[in-house]
Amino acid sequence: MARLFDVRAAERGRFAWFAGLALLVAFAQMLGQAGTEALFLARLGAERLPFAFVLAAAATVAGSLAYALRVGRARNDRVAIELLGLAAAAVAAGAFAVRSGSEPALVALYCLYFATQAVLVGHFWTLAGDFFDTLAAKRVVPLCTVGLSAGGALGGGAAIAVVAALSAEMLLAGWAIGLAAAAVLVALSHARLTRWRAVAQGEEDETSVEGLRAAARYVRASPLGRRLVASSLAMVLALFVAQFLYSQRIAAAFPDEAELARFLAIYLAASNALEVLVELVVTPLAIRRLGVPSANLVQPLVTAASFAGMLYWPGLGSAVAARVNRELLDNALAAPVRTLAANALPQRFRSRVRALLDGIVVYAGMALAGGVLLFVSELTPAALAAAGGAFALLHLVANLGVRRQYVAAIVSELRAGRLDWHELVDEIGAREVQSIAELWSHQLAAEPGEPSAALLDLPPLLVAHGCVEPVRAALAHPSAPLRAACLEALAVHDDDARTWLAALADPDAGVRRVALRVLPAPLQ
Description:
CATH topology of the largest domain: Growth Hormone, Chain: A
Oligomer: single chain
Structural class: mainly alpha
CATH superfamily of the largest domain: MFS general substrate transporter like domains
Strand content: under 5%
Number of strands: 0
Distance between the termini: 34 Å
CATH architecture of the largest domain: Up-down Bundle
Helix content: over 70%
Number of domains: 3
Number of helices: 21
């Protein structure tokens, strides 16, 4: 927990500003989600959702491509003002049309929510990248993510009050006002942002069109990249089938528009508050205990279980449980794990591949899910739940493929010297460490001479995860630098007197000096 709140004194002003912006944007978006969903389901019905999914996906991909054309041509804070201002104006116009009884405007606002969520949150991380270097980002980004969840919880609470005092339609006005307030915040902070800027203005943005093209070329040639794409597509298919099913049941349980809006507001406030707890406690624990590749299997397993619940226990309870998996678990656990899984890619492609997956692949999958639902929407809910379970199992198979390729990619990058093992200490589990240890031992046997720098760097990683025996065995290797590196790694994990007596009698003086310097305290 102490590491999570590690914000340095020089970063506190920047962090507070970005956390505030994240909270404000999430607050506005939560009002938008509650309003658009309640009005859509109450006035148009859940049966119109598949068509809306296709339109929303098309609108989001189009918006992402338009954004990619604009970003990089102006400062990111200027682009943020433009995006927030345009979004606020579009929401205000749509809200006025909805108040006049326009059904197309309601569909347009439903699509606009997805487009703004993708583009605004994506640009938030791009803007933050201008002011925090890579090392600072690893400490600060989790806190900004918590800020997004906290803003969602506050937005849900505000939605409860708005619906109780006014109407569901007024949630749309609050959405527009919140986005406009965020635009004003960025505009008024121009001087402050100029002072804080840590990256040159002309730096290429990873979400630009050229960045997306480079990511697409890399993904086609990368086994891990291809499996990440397959995983994203299978995930989206399963989750949007789930959303269609649980939306039907929630709408049926609350046929009155005001009651539906009140239920959604209460649910969103509670789920976003719980999301903060999951992000702070459950996600770090799962990553630390299971490792990223194995933690990546949690979501498809829980998704399959949620479909089983809707199949065998139809009703509001199973619908809410499926929604918790669709939103809370995805935001608080699965999304951070997916982000970390990309750390096995070459560093220059990580952000680009994430932008491709989040901005293009996910919404292409959403369009595919909408098309599938249009085709099979006449199936019974039980048949749809069974089909959704099949998609969840496809997601599980894809994530098992990601797990296999993750280790291979790490070994490849370590061998090429393009990956620092310090980045992986908190991200890999026992299974991955064991695989790396086996490959490390095999490589040492194949290189009887002086090992590469990458092989010399690995003993601390292996020992830190309890994989001591391969490192102890490597003390018999003919390379003195390797023996010294192994002794350094074993210093706080191995107080076997025989190991250290042999080290103190090593024929190489450098190894003996290292043994004396790091000799465990009980043996001194």
